[in-house]
Structure formats: structure tokens, C-alpha cells
Write a sequence for this structure.
């Protein structure tokens, strides 16, 4: 994905699309995934019961303000769920026909294969959604992601911080629960 990220960052249309929907700063910090020691430290510091970080005897809550400070994601705009279900009438096949290269098909589990998406801005937004959601399958996008990504291209602003906060707390809890 790093090569695709670099191409996207050198494409003015894509940079503007990411900026306009409030995702550019988050897109640019993808190197955070490479900070294994820091991530392990944070995982170990998470207090499952109290839902706070315990660092040097102090309780530090994980809040939307910290998400904003660390990522630059928007705290204003429409609420969004990164794990929610899709709404609307367009099917995945409709999306594939309209936004993917000719001959593309949905994945075996009925998702869009992101590298088949022809519009670089839309493709970058879809990859960014997967990163924010902590998806293990960054190469595919569900119908909900597709709908939200298209809304982003129409300059709709979402409250990304609250959505990422929920995802992070769920992931920290699952990790410490042994899942």
C-alpha cells in the first residue's frame, strides 16, 4: 500500500479530495503502523475495566479530543459508524459497474476490491476507511464504506474522531480480552 500512498500524495486531485473530507492528515500518518514498540506500550497500558490508559500511576482517558490531537481528524460533522450497515438502494454490483474497471467483480464475500476502483481519490478514501476501522482486509470495501466515500467526494464532513474513538476502544478491549 505504501507505493499507492505515495502516488496518491503526489496527485493534487486526490490530496484535495482527502483534505476536503478531513482525511488528509490521517492518510499521511500511516507510518504509525510501523511504530511497533509504541503500539505495544499502549496496548499494555490499557486498563480493560476502567477503559483508560494507566501510565506511570496516572489514569489517562482515551477521548475524541486526543484522537483529534493525534490524527487531525474532524470532530465536527455528521456522525458516522465505521462498523455500521449500509443504507440506500445501490447494490455492490451497481457500484462495481459504475466505479470499477471493466470486467471487475465483487470479491467472494460480496465486497468491492479497492484496487479495481478507477478513481484514485475514491480508492484512497476507501483505503483510509479501512485503516481507520482497523480492518484486517484493507484490499476490500463494504457497501457502507462505498456510500460514505462517495459522500466524502461530495464534500460531506463527518465526525471522524468519535468513530475512530469507538473503534480504538473496541480493539483495545478485544486485545486485552484475548480476542
Amino acid at each position: 500500500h505504501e507505493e499507492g500512498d505515495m502516488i496518491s500524495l503526489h496527485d493534487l486531485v486526490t490530496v484535495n479530495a482527502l483534505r476536503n473530507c478531513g482525511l488528509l492528515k490521517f492518510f499521511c500518518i500511516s507510518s504509525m503502523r510501523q511504530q511497533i514498540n509504541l503500539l505495544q506500550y499502549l496496548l499494555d497500558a490499557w486498563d480493560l475495566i476502567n477503559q483508560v490508559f494507566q501510565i506511570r500511576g496516572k489514569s489517562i482517558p482515551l477521548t475524541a479530543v486526543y484522537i483529534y490531537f493525534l490524527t487531525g481528524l474532524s470532530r465536527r460533522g455528521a456522525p458516522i459508524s465505521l462498523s455500521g450497515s449500509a443504507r440506500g438502494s445501490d447494490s455492490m454490483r451497481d457500484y462495481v459497474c459504475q466505479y470499477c474497471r471493466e470486467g471487475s467483480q465483487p470479491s467472494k464475500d460480496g465486497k468491492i476490491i479497492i484496487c479495481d476502483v478507477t478513481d484514485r481519490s475514491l480508492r484512497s478514501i476507501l483505503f483510509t476507511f479501512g485503516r481507520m476501522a482497523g480492518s484486517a482486509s484493507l484490499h476490500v470495501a463494504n457497501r457502507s464504506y462505498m456510500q460514505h466515500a462517495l459522500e466524502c467526494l461530495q464534500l460531506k464532513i463527518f465526525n471522524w474522531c468519535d468513530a475512530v474513538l469507538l473503534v480504538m476502544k473496541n480493539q483495545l478491549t478485544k486485545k486485552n480480552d484475548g480476542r
Summary: The mean pLDDT is 85.
